[in-house]
Design a protein that fits this description.
Layout lengths: L4 E4 L2 E8 L5 E10 L1 H6 L1 H4 L3 H15 L2
Antiparallel strand pairs: 1-2, 2-3
Length: 65
């Protein structure tokens, strides 16, 4: 599950694309979410609160520079 999700520079990337019915097909393509967007997409995209927290901290550190 975690191999489909990575966090870089405050963005959450998942290996998946949006299908016609609005669900996410894992393993095809790549999608990018902000931490705020990821909260609403958690169930479909298999994003954990840890991923969201990590991305939020990275964004905060970036803006504090």
């Amino acid at each position: 599950m975690s191999d489909n999700v990575r966090v870089e520079r405050g963005w959450i990337y998942i290996k998946g694309t949006r299908q016609d019915d609005g669900t996410i097909a894992m393993g095809t393509g790549e999608m990018r979410f902000s931490p705020f967007e990821a909260i609403s997409q958690r169930a479909d995209a298999q994003i954990t609160w840890g991923h969201i927290l990590k991305a939020s901290v990275q964004r905060l550190a970036f803006w504090r520079r």
